[in-house]
Amino acid sequence: MTQYTVGVDFGTLSGRAVVVRTADGAEVATAVHEYRHGAVERTLPATGDPLPPHWALQIPSDWVDVLRTAVPQAVAAAGIDPAEVVGIATDFTACTFLPVLADGTPLSDVLPQEKHAYPKLWKHHAAQGQADRINALAHERGEPWISRYGGKLSSEWQLAKALQVLEEAPDIYARAERFIEATDWIVWQLCGVETRMIGLAGYKGVYQDGAYPSKAFLEALHPGFGDWVSKVDGPLAPLGGRAGSLTEEAAGWTGLPAGIAVAVGNVDAHVTAPAAKAVEPGQLVAIMGTSTCHVMSGADLADVPGMCGVVQDGIIPGLWGYEAGQSGVGDIFGWYVETLLSGGLTHDELTERAAAQKPGQHGLVTLDWHNGNRSVLVDHGLSGVIVGQTLHTRPEDVYRALVEATAFGTRTIIEALTSSGVPVTEFIAAGGLLKNRFLMQVYADVLRRPISVIGSEQGPALGSAMHAAVAAGVYPDIRAAAEAMGKVSRDVYVPDAAAADVYDRLYAEYQTLHDYFGRGANDVLHRLRALREEVSR
């Protein structure tokens, strides 16, 4: 019998399900479900109350609706017998994190009027103050785990978000019997068993060398925070592990057979690596969309400044998984087109005009911090900068400079890895921005590297389906699944030497501005943010 698995990718604004043939990775059918509430960033749906700046929430029922709609639609479109599906796996944006009761009920279902009861989306950046204090105390106490996060724990990760709940809504913190990553929560709904993926615990929860941060450290941060570990500790499961079996209730949602394998949850970026056949040391995969996540495995452990995390077995079993990222990429382009230009020109029109220019022709340099900086500065209090504008600057000039800035940000990450003794041997691109060939060529020129491209438009969902195949026993491990089901085209974009020479000069200017505004020489971006928040209050 031909066997299939289903991969479900939960993104920022929608979820998609893909039915994949396990024999060769053929993607038989896809269905997408847009979240009814999208990303909640302006007002709380239950009350209409405005949210403070830098908040980003989601609604758990939107995720369950993906299981109810996208999965059965994809199976129906595939034209297969649901009995041929042997497993299901999920991935999520991370850190997307929610407080729940002991049975998994989201606190937002119980207390819909309380903003801190809701899941905090990955791009919730309102806990930067908490992150700053966590980092300062970790260095003061010499906590060994801080080096695994490039010397700075992100405000996007669990510890800062949870500390924000405790300090701003102590009743909500006390009411929460568990805090859990969204991908682990959705697996709980599918199989009725609470599990925690070991990689997520490491990257987002500061679980290193078999332990979370000590109770003494947590109490020193804030009295009462010492019980934090009791709210997140639980059975840790490996990549590709079987979390349990599909329950009768979840079978009713999805139309899949009860009892099939439910794989341990995962991160959207991490599952994309094996989908692109990146299972060996040095193969860096950049998942390029609203933000960009850079994931790579290495044979050895190294301290790399500005990494989001380094976790043993975090991406590929047996290797050290390195994660870095840029908090805004496609989001920056969308902001420019939709907000600043107010619909005057489309992405396609701007791309065509920008592609007609030569590198350096616009005379601009931009810092790509419109949504803060994840790597290598790990500072979401930073903001975007555009230098060089004149009365002759055209919309396409700025658009091209923004594209180049995101490429410079990626080059900064690669140089941090290589200079720390973690060589990058191949750059593989995945994600929605692959559709923009101009952008991809700019990246090849800026990086001075050929760029390979994943052979799937649904990299995370394909990667999840591959992990489902491992959980179902179709393949013994993710390397074997990647060999059979992964897809990649090598060296699709090759750098142009003349363009690369100009970009070297522009990159030097970018680095000067990067360090001037980002490393404390001029703290104006933080002062402006503080002033904005003061006036808003």
Automatic annotation (TrEMBL):
EC numbers listed for it are 2.7.1.16
What enzyme category does the UniProt record give? transferase
SUPFAM superfamilies, per the entry:
Actin-like ATPase domain
Stored Gene3D superfamilies? 1.20.58.2240, 3.30.420.40
Name one matching Pfam family. FGGY_C
UniProt entry keywords in alphabetical sequence: Arabinose catabolism, ATP-binding, Carbohydrate metabolism, Kinase, Nucleotide-binding, Transferase
Q: Looking at the keywords, is ATP-binding present?
A: yes
Catalytic activity annotation: L-ribulose + ATP = L-ribulose 5-phosphate + ADP + H(+)
Q: Where is the Carbohydrate kinase FGGY C-terminal domain?
A: 285-472
Question: Would you say which domain of life the source belongs to?
Answer: Bacteria
Q: Does the keyword DNA repair apply?
A: no
The protein's annotated pathway:
Carbohydrate degradation; L-arabinose degradation via L-ribulose; D-xylulose 5-phosphate from L-arabinose (bacterial route): step 2/3
GO molecular function: any one? Answer: ribulokinase activity
The entry assigns this protein to a family as follows:
Belongs to the ribulokinase family.
- Spell out the protein name for this chain: Ribulokinase
Source organism: Dactylosporangium vinaceum
Gene name, per UniProt, is araB
